[in-house]
Specification:
Helix content is 32%, strand content 26%. By secondary structure, it is of the alpha+beta class. The N and C termini lie far apart (52 Å). A hairpin with a 2-residue loop joins β6 and β7 (114-121).
Protein backbone atom coordinates (compact mmCIF):
# COMPACT_ATOMS: atom_id res chain seq x y z
CA UNK A 1 0.00 0.00 0.00
CA UNK A 2 1.42 3.39 -1.00
CA UNK A 3 1.23 6.34 1.39
CA UNK A 4 1.84 9.97 0.57
CA UNK A 5 1.62 13.44 2.04
CA UNK A 6 -0.02 16.24 0.07
CA UNK A 7 2.03 19.45 0.07
CA UNK A 8 0.49 22.72 -1.12
CA UNK A 9 2.14 25.41 1.03
CA UNK A 10 5.33 25.72 3.03
CA UNK A 11 5.47 21.93 3.28
CA UNK A 12 6.79 21.83 -0.31
CA UNK A 13 10.05 23.64 0.53
CA UNK A 14 10.23 22.78 4.22
CA UNK A 15 8.84 19.30 4.91
CA UNK A 16 10.92 18.78 8.04
CA UNK A 17 13.60 16.14 8.55
CA UNK A 18 11.27 13.26 9.46
CA UNK A 19 9.30 13.57 6.22
CA UNK A 20 12.50 14.10 4.20
CA UNK A 21 13.96 10.92 5.70
CA UNK A 22 10.90 8.86 4.71
CA UNK A 23 10.39 10.35 1.23
CA UNK A 24 11.12 7.94 -1.60
CA UNK A 25 9.50 9.89 -4.45
CA UNK A 26 7.80 13.19 -5.22
CA UNK A 27 4.81 13.43 -7.52
CA UNK A 28 4.58 16.92 -9.03
CA UNK A 29 2.13 18.80 -11.24
CA UNK A 30 -1.03 17.84 -9.41
CA UNK A 31 -3.93 19.90 -8.04
CA UNK A 32 -5.38 19.81 -4.53
CA UNK A 33 -8.64 17.79 -4.36
CA UNK A 34 -10.12 20.64 -2.30
CA UNK A 35 -10.15 24.43 -2.36
CA UNK A 36 -7.39 26.47 -0.70
CA UNK A 37 -6.89 30.13 0.25
CA UNK A 38 -4.63 32.34 2.39
CA UNK A 39 -7.20 32.19 5.18
CA UNK A 40 -5.26 31.43 8.37
CA UNK A 41 -3.28 33.87 10.48
CA UNK A 42 -0.38 31.72 11.71
CA UNK A 43 0.85 32.20 15.25
CA UNK A 44 4.15 30.56 14.30
CA UNK A 45 4.61 33.21 11.62
CA UNK A 46 3.70 36.31 13.66
CA UNK A 47 0.18 36.35 12.22
CA UNK A 48 1.16 35.92 8.56
CA UNK A 49 -1.51 34.56 6.20
CA UNK A 50 -1.03 30.88 5.35
CA UNK A 51 -2.77 28.47 3.01
CA UNK A 52 -5.53 26.26 4.39
CA UNK A 53 -8.46 24.32 2.91
CA UNK A 54 -11.57 26.51 2.64
CA UNK A 55 -14.84 26.28 0.69
CA UNK A 56 -14.45 29.72 -0.91
CA UNK A 57 -10.97 29.01 -2.30
CA UNK A 58 -9.75 27.25 -5.45
CA UNK A 59 -7.81 24.09 -6.22
CA UNK A 60 -4.07 24.90 -6.36
CA UNK A 61 -0.82 23.34 -7.55
CA UNK A 62 0.53 20.74 -5.16
CA UNK A 63 2.96 17.85 -4.77
CA UNK A 64 2.69 14.44 -3.14
CA UNK A 65 5.61 13.11 -1.13
CA UNK A 66 5.50 9.32 -1.37
CA UNK A 67 6.84 7.81 1.86
CA UNK A 68 8.30 4.46 2.92
CA UNK A 69 6.29 4.36 6.18
CA UNK A 70 2.75 3.24 6.97
CA UNK A 71 -0.27 5.52 7.27
CA UNK A 72 -0.05 5.85 11.06
CA UNK A 73 3.61 6.83 11.01
CA UNK A 74 3.04 9.22 8.09
CA UNK A 75 0.26 10.91 10.08
CA UNK A 76 2.54 11.18 13.11
CA UNK A 77 5.35 12.75 11.07
CA UNK A 78 2.98 15.19 9.35
CA UNK A 79 1.42 16.15 12.69
CA UNK A 80 4.82 16.75 14.33
CA UNK A 81 5.92 18.89 11.40
CA UNK A 82 2.77 21.01 11.62
CA UNK A 83 3.08 21.58 15.39
CA UNK A 84 6.83 22.28 15.08
CA UNK A 85 7.81 19.24 17.17
CA UNK A 86 9.82 17.25 14.60
CA UNK A 87 11.83 14.56 16.37
CA UNK A 88 9.78 14.71 19.57
CA UNK A 89 8.11 11.33 19.14
CA UNK A 90 4.65 12.85 19.71
CA UNK A 91 1.85 10.91 18.11
CA UNK A 92 -1.21 12.19 16.30
CA UNK A 93 -4.46 11.64 18.19
CA UNK A 94 -7.61 12.44 16.20
CA UNK A 95 -9.99 14.82 17.97
CA UNK A 96 -13.77 14.46 17.78
CA UNK A 97 -14.36 18.21 17.82
CA UNK A 98 -11.21 20.07 16.81
CA UNK A 99 -10.81 23.71 17.80
CA UNK A 100 -9.44 26.65 15.82
CA UNK A 101 -5.83 25.80 16.74
CA UNK A 102 -6.09 22.05 16.25
CA UNK A 103 -4.17 20.26 13.52
CA UNK A 104 -6.39 17.63 11.92
CA UNK A 105 -4.83 15.02 9.64
CA UNK A 106 -7.24 14.07 6.85
CA UNK A 107 -6.97 11.44 4.16
CA UNK A 108 -7.86 11.01 0.50
CA UNK A 109 -7.98 7.45 -0.83
CA UNK A 110 -6.79 6.45 -4.30
CA UNK A 111 -5.61 9.89 -5.32
CA UNK A 112 -3.18 10.41 -8.22
CA UNK A 113 -2.19 6.72 -8.18
CA UNK A 114 -1.38 6.71 -4.44
CA UNK A 115 -3.49 4.49 -2.13
CA UNK A 116 -3.57 6.91 0.83
CA UNK A 117 -2.70 10.61 0.70
CA UNK A 118 -2.65 12.57 3.96
CA UNK A 119 -3.00 16.32 4.40
CA UNK A 120 -3.68 18.72 7.24
CA UNK A 121 -6.81 20.72 7.84
CA UNK A 122 -6.43 23.70 10.15
CA UNK A 123 -9.16 26.27 10.73
CA UNK A 124 -9.39 29.50 8.77
CA UNK A 125 -9.03 32.45 11.15
CA UNK A 126 -8.80 35.57 8.95
CA UNK A 127 -11.95 37.65 8.94
CA UNK A 128 -12.64 39.59 6.85
CA UNK A 129 -10.86 37.64 4.13
CA UNK A 130 -9.85 40.55 1.89
CA UNK A 131 -6.65 41.42 -0.01
CA UNK A 132 -6.25 44.50 2.21
CA UNK A 133 -6.41 42.46 5.40
CA UNK A 134 -4.06 39.78 4.02
CA UNK A 135 -1.53 42.44 2.98
CA UNK A 136 -1.69 44.13 6.37
CA UNK A 137 -1.06 40.83 8.19
CA UNK A 138 1.80 39.89 5.84
CA UNK A 139 3.50 43.26 6.26
CA UNK A 140 3.10 43.24 10.04
CA UNK A 141 4.59 39.73 10.25
CA UNK A 142 7.88 40.93 8.72
CA UNK A 143 8.59 43.21 11.67
CA UNK A 144 9.12 40.25 14.02
CA UNK A 145 10.32 37.55 11.61
CA UNK A 146 13.79 37.68 10.10
CA UNK A 147 14.18 33.96 9.38
CA UNK A 148 11.87 33.69 6.36
CA UNK A 149 8.76 32.81 8.38
CA UNK A 150 6.99 36.07 7.45
CA UNK A 151 3.96 36.44 5.17
CA UNK A 152 5.74 38.09 2.25
CA UNK A 153 8.35 35.33 2.05
CA UNK A 154 5.56 32.73 2.37
CA UNK A 155 3.71 34.34 -0.57
CA UNK A 156 6.90 34.50 -2.68
CA UNK A 157 7.60 30.83 -1.95
CA UNK A 158 4.05 29.80 -2.90
CA UNK A 159 4.33 31.77 -6.15
CA UNK A 160 7.66 30.06 -6.91
CA UNK A 161 5.81 26.72 -6.73
CA UNK A 162 3.04 27.91 -9.04
CA UNK A 163 0.43 28.23 -6.31
CA UNK A 164 -2.24 30.76 -7.24
CA UNK A 165 -5.39 31.22 -5.19
CA UNK A 166 -8.50 33.27 -5.88
CA UNK A 167 -7.12 36.16 -3.80
CA UNK A 168 -3.37 35.87 -4.41
CA UNK A 169 -3.08 38.33 -7.36
CA UNK A 170 -4.96 41.08 -5.47
CA UNK A 171 -3.18 40.15 -2.23
CA UNK A 172 0.22 40.61 -3.90
CA UNK A 173 -0.81 43.88 -5.54
CA UNK A 174 -2.08 45.21 -2.22
CA UNK A 175 1.27 44.47 -0.52
CA UNK A 176 3.06 46.33 -3.31
CA UNK A 177 0.60 49.23 -3.13
CA UNK A 178 0.82 49.57 0.65
CA UNK A 179 4.63 49.60 0.54
CA UNK A 180 5.00 51.65 -2.64
CA UNK A 181 7.19 49.13 -4.48
CA UNK A 182 6.95 47.05 -7.67
CA UNK A 183 8.25 43.61 -6.63
CA UNK A 184 7.70 41.35 -3.63
CA UNK A 185 11.43 41.10 -2.84
CA UNK A 186 11.47 44.92 -2.61
CA UNK A 187 8.33 44.78 -0.47
CA UNK A 188 10.11 42.46 1.95
CA UNK A 189 13.05 44.87 2.29
CA UNK A 190 10.72 47.86 2.65
CA UNK A 191 8.57 46.17 5.29
CA UNK A 192 11.61 45.11 7.33
CA UNK A 193 13.05 48.62 7.32
CA UNK A 194 9.76 50.37 8.13
Amino acid sequence: MTVGILAYGSLISDPGQEIKDARIATKKDIKTPFNVEYARSSGMREGAPTLVPVEEGVSVNAQIFVLNVDETEAANRLYRREIHKVGSGREYEPKESPGKNTVVVKCVRNFEGIDTVLYTKIAATIDPLTPENLARLAIESTKEQTDGKDGITYLMDAKRHGIKTRLSPEYEQEILRQLGVEKLKDALAAARSA
